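Example: Glycoside hydrolase family 42 N-terminal domain-containing protein.
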Amino acid sequence: MKIIYFVIALVILVSAWALAGQKKDDVSQKVINDYNYMIGTQTVGSKYKFTEESMLVETARQIKDMGSNLLKFSMHPRYCTENYGLPENKEITSLTKLAQLEPSVKEVLNMDFKYYHIWVYGFSQYLPEPVGQKNDTTQVKFIGGYEDCYAEALYDELYDLTTYMLKEFNNSGKVFYLGNWEGDWHLRWDYDRTKPADEATLEGIKKWFKIRQKAIDDAKRDTEYQNVEIYHYMEVNLVQRGIDLNDKVLTNSVLKEVNPDYVSYSTYDVTNPPKTEAELNTKLKTALDYIESYLPAKEGLPEGKRVWIGEYGSPFMSHGEDVQDERAKWVIKAGLEWESPFILFWEMYNNEIKKETGEQVGYWMIDDEGKKQQIWYTHNKFYKESQRFVKRYYKEHNHVPSLAIFKEAALNFNALK
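Written out as structure tokens, the predicted fold is:
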């Protein structure tokens, strides 16, 4: 009888050890899955696809299959036209209804991504565009000044979206960053960077950004939630004009007054002109420092820098596959050295067609024939090396590496050589 009791006790003990080991492995894997590996990509307005799935779902799966835990996409009244070509649903009259009722949007929000960067544009601000045309004045109402009726409608729409997402993804561990596309082009809606900023529009865009920040802050204040985060970001793009000419741009004229949670920098004005890695490294870091200098301190945010690289990339048509990849590595290394929280390549599938010839411009990781480009393999290898490093570090220290420790290791990964 004693032997039987001993065997039972032994079985229980072994089972407990196994269960403890399994739980530790589960925790370890979750830590690896959730770590911010800093580099990533996005999907907006792709010009081709290869499956029966929607463009949004297909490209999101491609991003996930590459190894990324970050998805950047757009939630916008243009969901059914140029952005994703999804079926129009007349019942979708707000951002919340877009999240609730559009199957592809709902699907990608529920995919196994940790981080989401989302351009959010209110249905309450939008006027329908002629078929096949795009006019940015239809998506913002602050040109020449921002009327209270539009400001109040945008506040309500973003407040409702934030509330919905906090409840829907409560305890999911997801982190959402809600922001805008290149805001300096909203300030200069005619795309003429040489003209001075219109003062009434400058005041209007300040009000627009403040409303966006306030709506998200108020929804977070008023909603019970845990283990899910939502932040507001501003994206800027004409930074070099501020540095060189002291021209009025979002960075030096709006950022300090709004003080968003984060700032995204679409970096083409400093990453595409340079001919050498050294020049690009200097110009990019100078621009990031310039943005950061206008961003006041803010409580209640995670530690680390609040400015990231939201877009960069070189078109295949102009550079070819090898140079496209090489220049991407220049940006990645500079971003890592600066400790940018995110470094996002534009994009998974190309979104631009040359009007004169109909050719694909080639802002892509996978081309229009389904071929994975070298930049895809660079990201894929980087993720694999990153995960091995984080797993090893976690086993040795029982906690994940800081961003500073990770970036020092990452700068020596074979993927970036």
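The two ends are 66 Å apart (CA to CA).
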